[in-house]
Amino acid sequence: xxxxxGLSYYCGLVFNKQIYTVSxxxxxxxxxxxIFKRHPKIITDSRKVEQGSLFFALKGEKFNGNEFAEQxxxxxxxxxxxxxxxxxxxxxxxxxxxVLTTLQDLARHHRRQFNIPVIAITGSNGKTxxxxxxxxxxxxxxxxxxxxxxxxxxxxxxxxxxxMPEKTEVAIIEMGANHPGEIDFLCHIAEPTHGLITNVGKAxxxxxxxxxxxxxxxxxxxxxxxxxxxxxxxNMDEPHLSELAQGNKLKLFxxxxxxxxxxxTPFEVKLVAEEPFLEVxxxxxxxxxxxxxxxxxxxxxxxxxxxxxxxxxxxxxPAAKIKATIESYVPSNNRxxxxxxxxxxxxxxxxxxxxxxxxxxxxxxxxxKAGRKIAILGAMLELGEYSKHEHLEIATLALSCGLEQLIxxxxxxxxxAEETDALFFENTADLRAWFKQQNxxxxxxxxxxxxxxxxxxxxxx
Length: 461
What we know:
It is built from 16 helices and 22 strands. The protein is an alpha/beta fold and 461 residues long. The protein has 3 domains: 2-97, Udp-n-acetylmuramoylalanyl-d-glutamate--2,6- Diaminopimelate Ligase, Chain: A, domain 1 (3-Layer(aba) Sandwich), CATH 3.40.1390.10; 114-328, Mur-like, catalytic domain (UDP-N-acetylmuramoyl-L-alanine:D-glutamate ligase); 337-459, Protein-Tyrosine Phosphatase, Chain A. It starts with a strand and ends in a 13-residue tail after the last strand.
């Protein structure tokens, strides 16, 4: 039988009716950090162990990483971090109170070795695209480290921080949340010095308990920075942000302007054109207006570009590098991708969806100059009691956007389809089977839906 006493685990062994106690001292963060410096490659999946790596035996609903710790050592890991003394069979198995908490504490300890700007990015929509653009702009001038993919939760943020190289001069950390308190928790791990909220919209309403919950949770970043004397970037064109940042003293405001002027503020950006791709203009260090032609579509992406330009200007990235970065960035991973197949054009934005991002995508699609337009919309998840109303609202809006046809996918859209003139499919497999039988030509498609719906599969051969 094992029990915890302070920082030690005791094991009672019985031999000849006498009890002998074996004590396993837990590993401190300081001691673990010395090991981490020699073995900085962190692995949480025993199937992906690399030679000399440091394996963290995390637990999930259906797995216990402790059970794979010894296997990780045999696969080449230098050490494995565990939190169950039953598995302490080797000196290279480092016992801690809780593996996940230790991972987070170690990440915070590593972050504190850097006296650099750490920029936190959160928001209901566009945070990953904004993170990519901001990161690329800053990386064009500084050794920058940033969140890869969307590793933006309680595990992803620590892993991102622990992957930060010694020579990093600026870090950009994406933070996601679907429940109150999560942004604050991530802030206390990453300890950002700067922050920005892309926007506050109708996302994860079920977990947040409504829109007010979204506002409160996203603004946890502002409150953390207010307490620490950090600075926030505020897009004045986005509702709620200025209001939520009233308690912050250090603020940098920016906005869209048809006539950017150094006399007003250097942080103004002009939207030059929307089609076929967004083109923007901003002021150089000398006050000259320079244009940048992007590979992004839809006016909803303008704010993402503008934020990257503003961040670049604030951190003294030369205008020529900002322009080159904006023009070279190509969206991927089903985010605002433009795909052509034969005579048809697909706007593939099937990575995520919520009522706000759906609305923005539909309005931009409606403004596009195209003859035939069809929208294929996948269900929006995590809306709870708001689901039926929000799906009907989106379907109604879509039908006002000049579409030739509206196609809805997913059970959450069933009632909306019944109440509107829309074609309905229960799932993507049924849609794909139907789609392959059609003979579409010269059509512009908008494909937008939540990740789990998998709408991108209709384009697979």
